[in-house]
Write a structure and sequence with these properties.
The chain has about 300 residues and is of the alpha/beta class. Helices cover about 25% and strands about 25% of the residues. The chain is built from five helices and 15 strands. It starts with a strand and ends in a 23-residue tail after the last helix. The model has no long low-confidence stretch (mean pLDDT about 95).
């Protein structure tokens, strides 16, 4: 039987120019989190490299790997060795010309519980993800693990209530959001506080609306997309960290800084989840007979 209480760890880390060193750091942090009692560990989005989507460069497709592949073998071994569920966002090579941003979930015995391919793909200045990633085609998924069913969505997905809802409806008790989000240096003074507040607020709302825990793990540090000595043109991105963990009432139980590497640990209490859902039965009171129009782009006839 899954435990009634378990601890989650979010690895907020900076990423350097060498993929091998980033992977080694992630493995060290996973071991540290397990030593602190974590039973499930989540790494940031695309943690093996600096955020390469700051430029469009065909050579960067060489960073992608098959799943299963060398990196998933290493991560599987780490999950098994430390007895933790491990969630990792990877650059997946599915076929020549078809690549995904994919969250792989490994159970505590090292087995691959399942994959989630990022569904919502942004295309903004310094976030040129549509150049690299094919939109996911696996749908929104909850995976059964040693600690119970959990869901992993990725970064831009965190702004869309539909993804959180559909994952929660499959039984996920915790929604994990591995993330790479930061400030454009020229915008930070004017818009930075509001951008961060909106990001934090929308994800707390997912927790409340669905009666689930939400765990968000971001990277930290200033990056120019440096991959083995080659950087993107422009001013780079300041990743704002701020990883956090909140309960099904949206209360933030643990939160990281904006500028330091940290391992954030929080506890999931399924009894508290049940109590909150009994008192705020949003899933019970949904009018599923009235929601069909949600699948339309707009409702004004255009």
């Amino acid at each position: 039987m899954p435990p009634e209480k378990f601890r989650v760890a979010l690895v907020q880390m900076s990423c350097g120019p060498e993929p091998e060193q980033n992977l080694e750091k992630a493995l060290e942090r996973t071991a540290d989190a397990a030593g602190r009692g974590a039973q499930i560990v989540c790494l940031p989005e695309l943690f093996q490299t600096q955020y390469f989507c700051q430029r469009e460069d065909h050579s960067l497709f060489d960073l992608a790997e098959r799943i299963p592949g060398p990196t998933t073998e290493i991560l599987s071994s780490a999950a098994r060795r430390h007895g933790v569920v491990l969630i990792a966002s990877l650059f997946e090579k599915r076929a020549p010309g078809v690549y995904h941003n994919t969250a792989a979930t490994f159970d505590a015995d090292g087995s691959l519980c399942g994959l989630y391919r990022k569904m919502h793909i942004p295309d903004d200045p310094l976030y040129y993800e549509k150049f690299y990633f094919t939109p996911g085609d696996l749908g929104f998924r909850a995976h059964d693990t040693k600690v119970g069913p959990v869901g992993a969505l990725i970064c831009w997905d965190q702004w869309f209530p539909e993804g959180a809802r559909l994952t929660a409806l499959q039984g996920a008790q915790v929604l994990f959001y591995p993330t790479a989000i930061g400030w454009h240096p020229a915008e930070k003074a004017e818009f930075g506080a509001a951008q961060h507040d909106a990001w934090r607020t929308i994800q707390r709302a997912h927790a409340i609306a669905n009666g689930v825990y939400v765990a968000v793990v971001n990277r930290v540090g200033f990056e120019t997309g440096n991959i083995r000595g080659k950087s993107a043109p422009g001013h780079g991105l300041e990743f704002w960290g701020g990883s956090f963990f909140c309960d099904p009432f949206g209360r933030v139980l643990a939160e990281a800084s904006h500028d330091r590497e940290e391992i954030l640990v929080g506890e999931v209490d399924l009894k508290a989840l049940e109590d909150i859902r009994r008192n705020w039965p949003f899933l019970r009171d949904r009018r599923i007979d009235a929601y069909a129009p949600i699948t339309n782009r707009l409702l004004d006839g255009r």
